[in-house]
Structures are given as C-alpha cells and as structure tokens.
Design goal:
The chain has 193 residues and is an all-alpha fold. The chain has one domain. It contains eight helices and two strands. β1 and β2 form a beta hairpin. α2 crosses α3, α6 runs antiparallel to α7 and α7 packs antiparallel against α8.
Length: 193
C-alpha cells in the first residue's frame, strides 16, 4: 500500500459528493452518487466475504489504494456509509464541511503522520499526523468558508472535532466516526450558540 496513492484516491473520490452538493445546491445528485457507490461497495463486501479470492484479485490489481484486515468492512465502505448518513440527515451547511473534513483529515493525518510522525499518541497515531490533518482541514475550510452559511467558529470547531476524533483509538473505523461525530458536533454547536 502506497500512502500517497491511497490518500489521493480518497481525496478525489471523497470530494465528489460534497463538491457536487456545493455546486448544484441540490441534495438529489450527491445522494444518488453516494447510494450508487454504497451499493457497489456493499456488493463488493458481500462478494469478498463469500468468495475471498475476489478480494485477493482486487488487492493484487489495486493494492496500492485499498487496505483491509480480513473479516472487516473496508474503509471505503465505512466512508461511503458515513457519507450517505450525513447527506441524508444533516442540512447542506453541516453536511458539506463535515464531508470535506472527513476526507481531508484522513488524508492530512495519514500523509503527514506516515512521513513525519515521530511523537506517538496511540498505535498508528502521532502528534505530527494530528497537526497534518488540522492543516489540511484549515486549508479546505478557508476554501469553502464563503460558500457555507455557518459562522467561522463553527467551521473551525469542525476542523478541531474531526482532528481529535481521527486520533482517538475507537474500536469503530474512523472513516465512519470522524464524519458523523463532526456533523453532530457542528450541528449542536450551531443550535446552542
């Protein structure tokens, strides 16, 4: 597995739904796209579980962008499940930044953490990765800020929530937890403050 290839793939694929939502201002297209990919990934998961040689073939062909311990869902399936839930439940101004933060937190923490991560916090998690995720998300936050109807401090809270959820050693895959917890946190802060 080559980190930069996997993270580039995730940035491109993960940005499709929030970018289309941002450009079209319609939930229909992002939901259709995420439904399509979620169905495709669930079919792949079923086939992988039923016939492990299928996954062996995919890993042989695309092993530089996929990873998965045997017996668990792959990260892309968790990611697409989170995308679908976030799009379905949360309004545009929470969903779009949460999805971008999920994508760029994962990419930033993975790329920077694997290259420079020396100060370990948890297994596979470092201070440098935490900082890398925050930097990537700050950049994306500044790019989308003028298109999202949320106060700056709510978006900043989303950056920080996603960073800290990414680094915590949950038993549940962070491709699911980061986006959902960030969405809930931003939603609650927006309602309370």
């Amino acid at each position: 597995m080559v980190m930069w290839r996997r993270k580039t793939y995730r940035i491109i694929m993960g940005s499709i739904a929030p970018l289309i939502y941002l450009l079209t201002d319609s939930i229909f297209y992002p939901l259709v796209i995420s439904s399509f990919f979620l169905t495709l990934l669930l079919s792949l998961e079923f086939e992988r579980w039923k016939n492990p040689s299928v996954w062996d073939y995919i890993l042989k062909k695309y092993g530089k962008i996929f990873k998965s311990p045997p017996g668990k869902l792959i990260g892309d399936t968790y990611f697409m499940l989170a995308t679908f839930i976030i799009l379905f439940i949360f309004e545009k101004n929470i969903a779009i930044p949460s999805l971008f933060f999920l994508v760029f937190e994962d990419a930033g923490s993975g790329i920077i953490g694997s290259k420079f991560g020396k100060t370990k916090i948890f297994v596979g998690k470092s201070i440098e990765g935490l900082i890398g995720g925050i930097i990537f998300n700050l950049i994306i936050m500044l790019l989308i800020f003028k298109f999202i109807d949320l106060p700056f401090y709510i978006l900043l809270s989303g950056v920080l929530i996603s960073a800290f959820v990414e680094i915590l050693p949950f038993k549940i895959d962070d491709n699911l937890t980061v986006g959902l917890i960030t969405s809930i946190g931003m939603y609650l802060l927006n309602k309370i403050i």
